[in-house]
Amino acid sequence: MEEILKYLSVFLISTVKFIGGPLAGISLGLSYWETVLFTVAGMMTSVIVFSFIGRAASRWYANYRREKQKPVFGTKSRRIVKIWRNFGVIGVAFFTPLLFTPVFGTIVAAVFGTSKRRIFLHMLWSALFWSFILTYMVFEFGDVTARFF
Question: pTM score, two decimals?
Answer without folding.
Answer: 0.82
